[in-house]
């Protein structure tokens, strides 16, 4: 089997809820209640990479605040 065979050719979108939890949803399906589009569509791998980056952005401020608190104590 070649590298491209067996790969999912569907298009997905990244969705996010009010708690900033991310998920991948096929574009042909309706967005589940309580979720909204996060602004990324593509392959499942592209969507997962987007989610990884989003989590990095969410974690960074907390890590900076933790480092500041350690210096002050």
TrEMBL record:
Coiled coil: none annotated. Residues 3-53 form the MbtH-like domain. GO terms for cellular component: cytosol. InterPro entries: MbtH-like_dom (IPR005153), MbtH-like_sf (IPR038020), MLP_fam (IPR037407). It comes from the Bacteria. GO terms for biological process: siderophore biosynthetic process. Pfam families: MbtH. This is MbtH-like domain-containing protein. It comes from Sorangium cellulosum.
């Amino acid at each position: 089997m070649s590298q491209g065979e067996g790969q999912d050719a569907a298009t997905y979108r990244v969705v996010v809820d009010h708690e900033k939890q991310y998920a991948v949803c096929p574009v042909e399906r309706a967005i589940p209640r309580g979720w909204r589009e996060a602004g990324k569509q593509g392959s499942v791998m592209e969507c997962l990479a987007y989610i990884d980056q989003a989590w990095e952005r969410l974690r960074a401020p907390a890590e900076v605040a933790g480092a500041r608190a350690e210096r002050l104590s």
